[in-house]
Structure formats: structure tokens, C-alpha cells
């Protein structure tokens, strides 16, 4: 090939590349990665794809931004995680807190022309109660009925002070009753939300486009005329998309925090999950040693939580031994954070006092997702003389099998509501705590009962504080730290994270 | 020729049945109870039990197999255990993405690889030939994800010629589609180009030294016609490599799908494996086997056309 031909080929290739670059793309692109560039539309990188357009089959975790575009909730949350009115204008509890009466908006119509009224709300709540994923929020709901055209009554079989919180978190999206009846929601959303799903310009599982409804009753809460949501699981791909200007909001990896600062992006962080050791056998039925409070305390003293947070969690979180959120819970007590300050000598002494000077043997599960913490666990247990036999398994097996082991490494989502924390972490059966051992600890049981009977407010918070102190003292868990979720946004867009939502709903993404 | 086609089709169907049935039992053995993975970490044991009933996991394994197999035989691969959407719908969204990237990568590998292979075969030891050798060492040594990331850094972030992530369907914009698959296809093709080029170059040199080529030259045939004869005789090995590459790229596409966030079958396979979505895994296995069977069938046809002796085997 002559030099002229080579040059011609190179020139042709460059021309083709330039022509392609000039082509418009609905896949995003353009816009800067810094400054206030490109905030006309919201282009958010969400970690996971929408699980389902049917609110009863959707996850709370990452489905929030998708569902909040097309559905209105009965109850929403404010930035502090407190329930606030949405389609329910107001609500009132009965004196025994077993009946919740809600007044509904009367100016809302679903996208298929059906009117939102009490019959629609009842159909939705019954659908949500029956849902395999949403049902957990309504475990204590005995029935729902329409009192008149714009009033519904929710009757509980047992008092549930976290019901409104879970409804606001993502368990009260209202869909067209006709679509529920037809079983059509799995194929696409039919709601009354602030945006219309633009199916023609969307590519399911890759990009979802939503166009704002100017006439929506809460239009002022949603500043962006167009919203594009991109499910991006790989954090490097997501960060590259942010750098290239394809995104202006991103669910971020803490490892990229320094680069985000260099780029002048806004950084929003919030505690999302606790990391540490879950004691599934606090009663010592499998491994007698774990039934001794001093052994659990020894394990808590032994771990260098600050070092683990720095090395594994990129320093993004708060070292604490509590699992009430460190930033907005009235129960969280910062002064208790030094209770288990790393002290290997004290840990060994406690083990010796409990009758295990040479440690003991225990089997623990291990999955690739927890491998980052394994070296620290190995080193710490080794120094204590605790001989761990790790049993490898895939992540789905880990969730299934971990609680059958006496203890296991855990990264567990936290709640932004104190009563929900009590329920999720202490009193109700969860995959990570299938047999709550409250009954085996009379002091804990008594406090739980008092909390559940107390009037919501300062009295209940005070009792929860006492319970929290007791749980920390008993080393109910060995919490190392509360890990943050991080979100990057370009200048001109702010994200307000909410504990309990892995990615906040659209009302928490604003201009500014 | 007809019996040749019929035999290949029958063996393909048999392969499909054996592989998918084997995958069914292996998947059930490997995944176990999928409900914890499917429902996430907030699910209660009661919710897990409800999901087991909903997806039919509480039925005996052989009953589940028969239900799946009888439906799959009619082309219905059931519904995903994660989002309860038909598996066919999900594959209809995902397969075109992976095929776009893999077909373009294969075409690039074929066109450039053949051109480079012939050029190197014609001038062994020349600059291009030495360049091919160096490229084959370097590109084989470099991990695919690293090559992809370098392309993203340069062409998407620095120059902004192409998007860093995402896929645009040709229905929406042909230009957007080309932009979205260019970098992923090039990432996949780079290693394949040198493989095809090297294979063809070696085959070309081997054939070029045979007696019949000397005879053709002695008879006064033009260089171009001699090259065509040599190419036809050297092509079976390169064609086989190309077909193997296509199948390999289909599996290897997962890396570029992750780096470029393409919603293809590779990333779907990965997510379905992680959460234990067995119907999706089985559907993807069936589709992949179908592609392997089709590609091998086409390869046999082309080889039979290039070399009639193959048809008699």
C-alpha cells in the first residue's frame, strides 16, 4: 500500500469517526463533566435496573427513582425520613393506634383515565399487602376499607409504628386499579406520577426516559422537564459516563471521592448499611462461647473498626457500635462509640474471664462479596485464638445459609426510622436474623415491650435509647461501622440521600 | 447436499436438547433455593415461602423440568423469577445488543484480518508482517477490559467522539447505534483481527509453497489469480478460526458489556447467575446453543463450498 493510500485511509477513518461523533444520540452524551454544565435534564446513573413496574413486585432499594417518576405515593418521606402527605392529604390514628384513617386527594387521575379515589386506594393497598416484595410493610394490616369517596381506613391486627415510614419509603405507590385487575403492570407503569414514561425513546434495561407532566398536582417538586435514568452496575462504567458528560448524577463509589472533588462535583453521603459481625447464636445453642456476653464483647473490642473502614470502606462512613443511623436518629448516642474502642489486651482478658483463654473453634460462611473483609477478620480472630473454618459459597447461598452459622460477616441495610430499625434489626424474623432471640434476654424483652407500648415521641425515643444502650452493652452485634452511600452530581444539581433508600426518589434530586 | 444439511440440523437439535437439559439440572443443583437471592436482604421467611409457591419451586424437580421442557419445546421459556416478565421478551431486548457488537466485531476481524493476513503472506518478513507478530503478542497479553478502558478514556472522555456507556437501537437512530457499538466492537475485534491475520498468513505461506502454485505461476497466471487460488486453499483454517471467534466473542462480550454498560446477554447472564434466576439462565443457554449450532452449520456449508470433499464426509 502506498503512503498516499495509507494517508487516504487514515483520513477516511477520521472522517467517519467525526461523522459518527456528530450524529445525535438518544443515549446521552454531550455536556461537560464539571461546573454547571448540562443540568437542563436529569441524567442519573442508578446502580440497578428497575425490578418491576408493579409496585407490589418492586424493590425499595434502587427502584425508587424509576417508580417515583410514574407513580404518586399515598405517603411520602421528607429529608429526615418522616412521613409527609402525598395522595393522602392527611391521616389520623385511633386512640389505640390500631386504625389509621386517611383523607385522600380528589384531583388526581391515572394515565389510563381512571380517577384516583378511595376505591382505587383500597385496591392498591390490598394488592400491595398481597405482594411478595411489598407484603412485608403490611404484615400487621388486617384490612382496608373505603369509608367514603375520599377516605380510607386501614385496620391493624397489631400496633405498627413503622407502617407510615415503610409506606413513604416506597411501599405505597398507587397504580391504576384497572391495570392491577388486568395484571398489566409488569408490562409497563400505569400511574399518576409527575412524569410520563417515554417508551419510544427508552431502551429497557439500558435507558429510561420520562417527560414531565406540567399539570401534575405536585409539579413544583420536580424541576427537570426530562429525566433519563441509566441502570449501571459497574462503578467504573458509571464514573466514566459521569466524566464524559453522559450523566449528571451518579450512585458513586467511595473510591472515586478524591476525583469527584477534583472535578468540582457535589458530593452527598448518608449512612446506608452497617458492617460487622452478626451473632446468629447469641444464646450459645451452637457454640456455647457465643452465649456468653463477655465473648461477644471480646470480639467487639478486638476489631480495629477505624482501620477496616479506612482500608476497605475508603473511609466513607462512621465508626460506631450502634445501628441506629449516626446522622439523624434521636436514639443514636455518639458518646457510646468509644465503648468498644480497639483493645486487644482487654479482648483477650474478657475471653479468659469467660473461660476461653485459648479461644474456641467456629465455622463461618464466606462469599466473594465479603472477601474484602476476610483478611481483617482472619487476623483479628487469629489474635484472639478463635479458629475460624471458612466455608465458601455464592452470594445467594450466603443469604440462605449464613444465619444457620453461629456468626457471620454482615453488610446489612439500615432504616431511617427508629421503630423500623427496632423491627428490622431486633424483633422480626429477617434472612439475617431468622430467629430473633429477644425472648432469651428478659431485660431486652421488657424494654422492647415498653417501647412498643409507649406513645410515639420523646417518651418512645427515650425508651429506645435505653434499649440501644442495653443492646450495645450485650454486644448484640459487633458493628464496626455504618457505611455511607455516596452520590455525585454536577454543580447545579443537588441530591439529598435518604437512609433506607439505596437511591433517593426523584423528589430528593433538585436544582441548586 | 440435502442429507448433509439434514444431518447437521439433527445433530444441532440433539445438542440443544442435551445442553439445555443438562443446564437445567446443573443450575438447580448449583443455585439451590433461589428465593433469598431473588428477594434481597429484607425478605422474611414467609415472603420466601410465598415466592417459592409463586414460581413453582415447591414442586418436585422432575415436574418442574417437564413443565419447563414442554414449554421450551414450543419456544416459551417461561417468566423471570426476578421481575416476572417473559424470558422471551427479555432476550428479545438483549440478543440484538450482543449480536450487534459481536457481528460487527466479527466483520471487522474478517475484513481487516484477511487483508492483513494476505498482505503479510505476500511479503513475509516485511514491516507489516513484523508488526502483525508484535501486535499478536501485545494484544493477546493485554486484558480485554484494559483495552476497553483505554478506548473509553481516549475516545469517550478525552475526545468525546463516542459515548462511554449505553446502547442505542437502530430503530431510534442508525448514527446513534453505530456510535454506541463502535468502541465495544473495536475492543472485541482488536485481538480477533491479529488472530485471523496470523492464521491466514501462515496458511497462505504454507499453500504458496506447494507444487500446484509453482505450476500455476509457470503457466503464466497473473499474480492476482494465483493469489486467489492460494487464498481459497488457505481459507479453511482462517474460516474455522473466524467461526470459533464468533462463538468465543459471544461469550467474551460480557467484559465489554460491563465496561460499556451494554444491556446484552452477557450482563444478563451475569446478573441472572448472581441472583439465581434459573428461567433466564436456561433461556440464555438455549439461545447461545442455537447461535453455536447456526454458526457451525454455516461454517460447514462454507467449507463444503470451498472444498467439495468435505460434503462427502
From TrEMBL, chain A:
Pfam family, one: SBP_bac_5
Gene Ontology annotations for the cellular component aspect, listed alphabetically: ATP-binding cassette (ABC) transporter complex; periplasmic space
Domain of life: Bacteria
UniProt keywords, alphabetically: Signal
Record domain Solute-binding protein family: where: 82-429
Coiled coil residues, start to end: none
InterPro entries in UniProt: Peptide/Ni-bd, SBP_5, SBP_5_dom
The protein's name in its UniProt record: Peptide/nickel transport system substrate-binding protein
GO biological process: peptide transport
Gene Ontology molecular functions: peptide transmembrane transporter activity
Cleaved signal peptide residues: 1-21
Automatic annotation (TrEMBL), chain B:
GO molecular function: dipeptide transmembrane transporter activity
Protein family membership: Belongs to the binding-protein-dependent transport system permease family.
Membrane topology of this protein: Multi-pass membrane protein
Matches recorded under PROSITE patterns: ABC_TM1
Protein name, UniProt field: Peptide/nickel transport system permease protein
First-listed, main subcellular location of the protein, grouped into a coarse class: membrane
Superkingdom of the source species: Bacteria
Coiled coil segments of this chain: none
Gene Ontology CC: one annotated term: plasma membrane
Domain ABC transmembrane type-1: 95-303
Organism the protein comes from: Saccharothrix tamanrassetensis
A Pfam family hit: BPD_transp_1
Cellular localisation: Cell membrane
Transmembrane residue ranges: 12-31, 97-122, 134-157, 177-196, 237-260, 280-306
UniProt keywords, alphabetically: Cell membrane, Membrane, Transmembrane, Transmembrane helix, Transport
Lineage of producing organism: Bacteria, Bacillati, Actinomycetota, Actinomycetes, Pseudonocardiales
